[in-house]
From TrEMBL, chains A, B:
Enzyme Commission no: 2.2.1.7
Limits of the Transketolase-like pyrimidine-binding domain: 280-444
Pfam family, one: DXP_synthase_N
Family of this protein: Belongs to the transketolase family. DXPS subfamily.
Domain of life: Bacteria
A GO term for molecular function: 1-deoxy-D-xylulose-5-phosphate synthase activity
Name of the protein: 1-deoxy-D-xylulose-5-phosphate synthase
Enzyme class per UniProt: transferase
SUPFAM superfamilies: Thiamin diphosphate-binding fold (THDP-binding), TK C-terminal domain-like
Pathway(s) of this molecule: Metabolic intermediate biosynthesis; 1-deoxy-D-xylulose 5-phosphate biosynthesis; 1-deoxy-D-xylulose 5-phosphate from D-glyceraldehyde 3-phosphate and pyruvate: step 1/1
Complex formation: Homodimer.
A GO cellular-component term linked to this record: cytosol
């Protein structure tokens, strides 16, 4: 096995052509074995097997700098840079993250998980090299899916402006996570592929690039020749390389969206081991509700930025037709387009993961909120129970979203509330509204929620007690319930239990009323503590005769954490909080 | 006077060619008279006099939708849409804002002050039109300076993708606020101008646009003919129109950067009435310090996104040469490039207005902070004393920046602290650091600041007292001093006075120690209250025997406010706070 001899990229240099080809076969096989057992990013890595081997054969990492966009396509790179065991030995599968990570290797320059950053990062790395009067290659690898992001364009401009060595590799596999939108940059890439790089209006040449096209982007020898040709260039070059997403695994080549990421799956049949099943979830009820709205009202339009499966599968996308827009990986466009849609009388609903919502602070504020346009933003996986890689955390949303004026941010705790809030958000025209889609198993109250949500900041007191009032926000309402039950059962304390529902403002009347027969207010939130919901309560009550305890997550990039451990470390267990309450009440 | 007859754009329709030409002369004259007396955006509006008259002659606003980017070039539009008096009558100069504003007129679709948003907004407006099966023109006007922003590119892609009527006007005056960077999109525009739109690699055609070039963009008849040609187009068109910034006022045509905005100035000599003078300010000492650093250390590099005058005048830019990078209006690029620079051993210093910093939340978090790279961010005008148009507010920074992990955000209160913090920030390699550049007259302590800022979150107790502790953050430290003086002089109370210096964390040791001989902690911050600094203190002290009062600004888009009035409305006067303290202390 050739791969066994590769401890670092230096070990590739002496390989024969035959050995290099054998190496590509081996790493593809290793990749498929691991991902089929463990899950991960399939298609993106299968498509860059040859490219990665060629890069490490031609360039000299870490002297030459390789910078990966999104970096979920760095598995082969990891295999070739001293981390082989994390792919060949199932006991070590979790030794590496799914993204580049400088803590793992000097060959990884950045921790990256969001798209469209590699070119701007490379522009800085190259500029630092030039200031230090060093000379080596700076190579940025970006996929066509990531090219739709505005930051990628800013980076393209910056590199073109700089005039020194930078090698931009556009890995064009004709696909984002889902199929790319038609038009704009995708028209430009399509024309270039169709013409084998010779189209009249070349987008990259227009920006000043020395442009190279390679049709056979999974051909190792061609890749090596191309990289050798541009290595040590004294000016920016752009290599447009056409690859096949999922290359070498037929099911992944055919069903490219399903095989973007996921698993485990069968190597023989290409079937995923555990299909999502038909059980209702917060996700499925949201989709069903929006589908109904779309059928009833031609002005309802669902928006998404490059992750359409969050809302609709391909079949559903065909059904909703023009009432769904996938803008590509361009979250800012989604937010500002929603503003324009609402201004002109449509009812936009933008579905977005919390971790990517943070790319649009200015669009949420200066566009949607300043103009007070009634768009609906569905915030997914804003929770410690969401994605747990440090590059994809979703629990910073309250500090950055909840303090934007005019925005109404809602935290439902069950199915009925969620759908009532969603209906209200879509139909009202007074405010931009965001909804923190609950995370976890679907809960049903069984009672229709008839709340009028236009009465802003009205909290629901679900249990009237005394001494201690528990504010359980959204996903943590159930924790508040558990604490209330413990206090009652174990200590005879009848706590007041509150479902705040509104994140963007306080129920001051309720808070004022607590002073008469309560000593303590406890606020629980499924997010970071600082700048969060509970701190508003603590501030408001700062002058009153009430003590306040806030519970949330410490402001840290927690990485691949165990959720229960993280919660315990942050004191977020019923047992601990009951104890803290007893202490505060001097019991 | 023709202008006198124009109550709305409908009144243009019956004008003869001669009258239209006379109108352009009149509005230019009116514009110059007002701006020379009152100040405002000179060059941008002078350049679009003919274009605006032609737009309103050919299109039918408000049925046809005109959407202005940045919208500081909307003065002529305002004159022609019922707001003439705000330009012709000096008593009414302040009746209108400097930007489009739906509260003023149905001809203004959006409140806009940040760049690069018009295309995305237009894509939404046009999509809503199509969903409603209406038909009219949607026209988006964007300057070449705004084209460098990633959102503009995302909007270009979206419009090209949509396939229905949208008319994009690129107003190319060969200049951003300052000269545009070379390369990238500016290479593309330059080639198009040089070839009169016929260059081989046409950036806009590559994206799929039906492209038109007009060389004489200040020629009224040509503009009318072009607009008539594309009106009611059934597909997206892009009009690349070459105009002269400052057209018709020689000093503004020559000195385009100085005449981007400002005034009053002399119409005869083109000289500004009040030159900035040579008095030292926080701005000038920052620039001097960075100039010195640059001379001493070739790895120090200053960054800016389209507002280079914030840091360096044109002469200074020539002096610092390659150690200054203006990335164009592309704040995200500045932040992520800084990350790359720091990773590769350079010392980046990014100067940015607070209102524009909010465009980079994800770059500050996912790029700079997650990678923990030691870039320095200088945050200008983060204060109620900064820009006071609702589209340019700078006092939302603490909620969105201070709660990002790893970041150190500092609030200096005088010259010596500011320079000591700046020096530390540049030379250390442990954290990304932002500094809230003080606003207001330069204050000097006269004592060198020898603080070791690597001791994070160590507050400075400047006066040790009892009963009440005053935390005066940054610009509001002087207010805390004033309160302390009043408490002492008028009520015999010796307050503890604290200069927190650190925004991103609390001095827990100090806070813990206050419980022994204090009853009240008061926190003052020059920013919005919610999600701010004081709320962290309130939360931390929520369980202790200390009351807390937080003072800051209410979470509202305050518009063209009087600063002292705004402060008074928010209780931020020494008299009020002293009274509140006395009440809390039961005195």
């Amino acid at each position: 096995m050739v791969l066994e001899k590769i401890q670092s990229p230096a070990d590739l240099k002496g390989l024969s052509a035959a050995e290099l080809h054998q190496l590509t076969d081996e790493v593809r096989s290793v990749l498929l074995t691991k991902v089929s057992q463990h899950g991960g990013h399939n298609g993106p890595n299968l498509g860059v097997v040859e490219m990665t081997v060629a890069l490490h054969y031609v360039f000299n990492s870490p002297t030459d700098k390789l910078i990966f966009d999104v970096s979920h396509q760095s598995y082969i790179h990891k295999m070739l840079t001293g981390r082989r065991q994390a792919f060949t030995d199932s006991q070590h599968y979790d030794d590496v993250s799914g993204y580049t990570n400088p803590k793992e290797s000097e060959h990884d320059l950045f921790t990256v998980g969001h798209t469209s950053t590699s070119l701007s990062l490379a522009s800085g790395v190259a500029k630092a090299r030039d200031l230090k009067k060093d000379s080596y290659n700076v190579v940025a690898l970006i996929g066509d899916g990531s090219l739709s992001g505005g930051l990628a364009y800013e980076g393209l401009n910056a590199i073109a402006t700089a005039k020194r060595n930078t090698i931009v590799i556009v890995n064009d596999n004709e696909q984002s996570i889902a199929p790319n939108p038609k038009g704009g940059i995708y028209t430009a890439l399509h024309s270039l592929r169709q013409s084998k790089g010779k189209t009249q209006d070349n987008f990259f040449k227009a920006l000043g690039y020395d442009y190279y096209y390679l049709e056979e982007g999974n051909d190792l020898d061609s890749l090596i020749a191309l990289f050798q040709e541009v290595k040590d260039s004294d000016h920016p070059v752009l290599l447009h390389i056409h690859t096949v997403k999922g290359k070498g695994f037929r099911p992944a080549e055919i069903n490219r969206e399903a095989f973007h990421a996921g698993g485990p799956f069968s190597l023989e049949t290409g079937e995923y081991s555990s299909s999502a099943g038909s059980r209702a979830s917060y996700s499925s009820i949201t989709t069903d509700f929006i589908m109904d709205k779309i059928k009833q009202d031609p002005t309802v339009v669902a928006l998404n930025a490059g992750t359409p499966m969050l809302l609709f599968n391909p079949e559903q996308r065909r059904t909703v037709g023009e009432q769904f827009v996938d803008v590509g990986i361009a979250e800012e466009q989604a937010a500002t387009m929603a503003t324009g849609l609402a201004q002109n009388g449509a009812k936009p609903i933008w579905a977005v993961y919390s971790t990517f919502l943070q790319r649009t602070y200015d669009q949420l504020s200066h566009d949607m909120a300043l103009n007070n346009q009634a768009g609906t933003v569905l915030v997914y996986l804003a929770s410690v129970y969401g994605m747990n890689d440090e590059s994809h955390l979703g629990f910073f949303d309250i500090p950055f979203l909840a303090h934007i004026p005019n925005f109404v941010y809602l935290a439902p705790t069950n199915k009925e509330e969620h759908l009532a809030m969603l209906d209200w958000a879509i139909e009202q025209t007074d405010h931009p509204v965001a909804i923190r889609v609950p995370v976890g198993p679907l809960k049903e109250s069984g009672e229709p929620d008839t709340t009028d949500y236009s009465h802003l900041n009205k909290n629901q007191v679900t249990q009237k007690g005394s001494q201690v009032a528990l504010f359980g926000l959204g996903n943590f309402y159930s924790l508040a319930e558990e604490i209330a039950e413990k206090l009652a059962a174990e200590h005879g304390i009848a706590a007041t239990l509150v479902n705040p529902k509104f994140i963007t403002g306080l129920d001051k009347e309720l808070l004022d009323s607590l002073e008469t027969d309560h000593k303590l207010v406890v606020a629980l939130e499924d997010g970071i503590l600082e700048g969060g919901y509970g701190q508003m309560i603590a501030s408001y009550l700062g002058s009153k005769n009430l003590k306040v305890q806030n519970y949330g997550i410490a402001k840290v990039y927690h990485d691949r954490y165990d959720t229960e451990e993280l919660l315990a470390e942050n004191g977020l267990t019923a047992v601990n909080i009951v104890q803290q309450i007893l202490t505060a009440l001097n019991i």
